[in-house]
Design a protein that fits this description.
By secondary structure, this protein is mainly beta. The protein has a single domain, classed as Beta Barrel (Hypothetical Protein Pfu-838710-001). The chain contains 2 helices and 9 strands.
Amino acid sequence: MALEIEKKFLVLNDSFKKISYRSINITQGYIFSSENKILRVWTTPEKSKITIKSGGDIVRNEYEYGIPSEDAQELLLLSNGYIIDKIRYLIKFEGFIWEVDVFLKENKGLIVAEIELEQENQKFIKPNWVGEEVSSDKKYYNCNLAEKPYSLWKL
């Protein structure tokens, strides 16, 4: 079973861009999502994948498989507009790779950092640009951002 242990945080500023070693443009479409299960298609200019996730906020089962780009484009149509676009920055910091997602279009203005761990209570050092943890706040889940974008939130 493929297990994903991931914590999610708000990002305080864009200083992470100075230490980023790679960025990727990502489009994600949600074909199905419920309280604790999702089926999504994920595409970048280089590759495409289909992902099934189930479970809780921090610890989830995750199955991800590469698919042809043409199939991904067709599957995006099945998402009925439940799509998010983002630029993901990959940052090495204190033995971990942080994934910082800068959301675009309807979610513009939202920046979230994620760290994958080997154990739920594993210790790690937060970079100075990482703020409040939002791992359990469902409104920050990508599938929920596809349905209710950040631009519609009452801030």
